[in-house]
Amino acid sequence: MSAATIPDLMQFNPHMVAYQLTLIDSAIFRAIPQTALLSHSPKSPHPCIVASTDFFNYFTRAIEHSILLPQEASRRAELVNRWIKIASYCLKLLNFQTLKAIVSALHSPPVSRLRRTWECIPKKRMQRLDFLH
């Protein structure tokens, strides 16, 4: 596969995206030693804890970017719907880290201000997002 044909993440089944993200988060979390969790200090955090935080922040910004990039409100709404589906699967997989990253991105100021986009989201999907929040 060449760089020109790299598939869009949104082309994949939402359940598989959630599953793969769960595997990534799990690997990052399992790399954190128990002692690092018990003796965590914000002044000198363990590198694995920093990696977990950095991945959360990176992923949140990537979701925001994926939604903000399209110009059309309808395309943005499709992406919001897809991220809500992925978040729902994360909940089923008990992946609260990715779930929170997705919800944080959807509630971030740049995304939450997209009035026309949010008007395109079905009521049922909005209720699901409220439940996930």
Give the topology, please.
Blueprint: H1 14-30, H2 34-38, H3 47-68, H4 73-92, H5 96-106, H6 109-112, H7 115-119, H8 123-132
Helix pairs in contact: 1-4, 3-4, 3-5, 4-5, 4-8
| Alpha-beta content class | mainly alpha
So, the CATH homologous superfamily of the domain at 46-133?
Ras guanine-nucleotide exchange factors catalytic domain
Q: H/E series, N to C?
A: HHHHHHHH
Give the oligomeric state of the chains in this entry, treating copies of one chain as homo and distinct chains as hetero: single chain
Largest sheet: none
Mean pLDDT: 91
Spatial extent as radius of gyration? 16 Å
Q: Can you tell me the CATH architecture of the domain at 46-133?
A: Orthogonal Bundle
Shape: elongated
Outline the low-pLDDT stretches.
none
What fold name goes in the CATH topology slot of the domain at 46-133?
A: Son of Sevenless (SoS) protein, Chain S, domain 2
Residues in helices, as a percent range: over 70%
Distance, first to last CA: 37 Å
| Overall strand count | 0
Strand content: under 5%
The number of distinct helices, counting runs of at least 4 residues, comes to 8
- The CATH C-level name of the domain at 46-133 is Mainly Alpha
